[in-house]
Design goal:
Shape: elongated
Largest sheet: 5 strands, parallel
Structural class: alpha/beta
Order of helices and strands: EHEHEHHEHEHEEEEHEEHHHEEHHHH
Bound molecules: arginine
Strand order of the largest sheet: 3-2-1-4-5
CATH topology of the largest domain: Argininosuccinate synthetase, chain A, domain 2
């Protein structure tokens, strides 16, 4: 029998660098590292060499940016999925893709074990492990952070130094930061106190709206079947489109979110997010839907948005219910084609205009001018039937009379 092979999800940071050495020693294993580029700005160059210096026998660094946007981010955007009504879920959307790629590499390399660097009190362990369980049920999963001896970052650094693991020990940032193209999540340090406003140094890609430029900027977004296909009639590439909106929105202080959220593991946490592109695109997408979807579909979809957000957050991206809801969402997007014009200014996104060849907005019906074609007379009969149950109930309960008496 050959050596044990373990495929490790590897970011190149302190935790995952130590994991490589720790697993290699503990299991006498061959370690294969797997890194996915989802558009985090962290240095990916040299990561392969770094992984090998740390003890890996093989190292994959995969550019997943396009797949991330088209197969994952657009799915969430079409669904209008915002966790607890606000968080666009950059991390939660990225994990299933990273887990899928980790499983694929493990299978290709003949590894029986995969490992990740998520902590035991977070959501990401849930997302990683449920995705792996679903996609590759025979793989064994290890989470060294839940079981190893290190109790602090300092102890981890000592271990790294002792074992000649090349970790860049920069001036310790008090924050834990997770980033990809769909947004940044920042927690720890003073952010753990929800009574305190986030200090300016916590924010990474957005300016304080107070100091944003005094001139507004107008942008136009084109949608085809619910997917953004153009920015200002120019940028069409999905990765470039999201990158450009992050830059533009960041400059105008768009997409700063300060959130108390309910974690899967049962605790509440406070985290701040920066998601300029996600906020702009969600605003625009919902707006174009308002023009195009009929009332029942729009209302029903609001419930579905919530359910989809919960499934994504809870690590159930590859679940049967998620698949079914995705099919529903895709059906609703058939006619979601058109254009939205927005203005960004000092932290705000304002809708200026929207249009679509599938618009259900009918000016002749909506107008209060003499062009009006709406049958006002018909409203009379409609109301005598529509109000009937309430009239009946009102008679029985007689609310007004009781109120006059008291
Ligand atoms: N709370 C977010 C989520 O569960 C982000 C988790 C990771 N955050 C971080 N700063 N490392 O999706």
């Amino acid at each position: 029998m050959g050596k044990v092979k373990i495929a490790v999800a590897y970011s190149g940071g302190l935790d995952t660098s130590i994991i490589v050495k720790w697993l290699k020693d503990k299991y006498d294993a061959d370690i294969i590292t797997v890194t996915g580029d989802l558009g985090q700005r962290a240095e990916l160059e040299g990561l392969e060499e770094k992984a090998k210096l740390t003890g890996a026998v093989k190292s994959y660094v995969l550019d997943l940016r396009k797949e991330f946007i088209t197969d994952y981010v657009w799915t969430a955007l079409k669904a209008g999925a915002l966790y607890e009504g606000i968080y666009p879920m950059a991390c939660a959307i990225g994990r299933p893709l990273l887990a899928k790629v980790l499983a694929e590499v493990a299978i290709k390399e003949g590894a029986d074990i995969v490992a990740h660097g998520c902590t035991g009190k977070g959501n990401d362990q849930v997302r990683f492990e449920v995705a792996i369980q679903t996609l590759a049920p025979d793989l064994k999963i290890l989470a060294p952070l839940r079981e190893w001896e290190f109790k602090s970052r300092e102890e981890e650094i000592d271990y790294a130094v002792e074992n000649k693991i090349p970790v860049k020990v920069t001036k310790a940032s008090p924050y834990s930061i997770d980033e990809n193209l769909w947004g940044i999540a920042i927690e720890c340090g003073v952010l753990e106190d929800p009574t305190v406003a986030p200090p300016e140094d916590a924010y990474q890609i957005t300016v304080d709206p107070k100091y944003a430029p005094p001139q507004a900027e107008t942008i136009t977004i084109n949608f085809e079947k619910g997917i953004p296909v153009g920015l200002n009639g120019k940028i069409t590439d999905p990765v470039e489109l999201v990158t450009a909106l992050n830059q533009l929105g960041g400059k105008h202080g768009i997409g700063r979110l300060d959130v108390i959220e309910n974690r899967v593991v049962g605790i509440k946490s406070r985290e701040i997010y920066e998601a300029p592109a996600a906020v702009i695109l969600n605003t625009a997408h919902t707006e174009i839907e308002k023009l195009i979807l009929d009332k029942d579909t729009f209302r029903f979809k609001q419930d579905v948005s919530n359910r989809v957000a919960n499934l994504i957050y809870d690590g159930l991206w590859f679940s049967p219910l998620f698949n079914s809801l995705k099919a529903f969402v895709d059906a609703t997007q058939e006619n979601v084609t058109g254009e939205v014009t927005l203005e960004v200014y000092k932290g705000n996104v304002r809708i200026l205009a929207r249009s679509s060849k599938y618009s259900l907005y009918n000016k002749d019906l909506a107008t209060y001018t003499s062009d009006d074609t709406f049958d006002h007379k018909a409203a009379e009969g409609f109301l005598s039937i529509y109000g009937l149950p309430y009239k009946t109930w009102g008679k029985v309960t007689n609310i007004a009379k009781k109120e006059v008496k008291s």
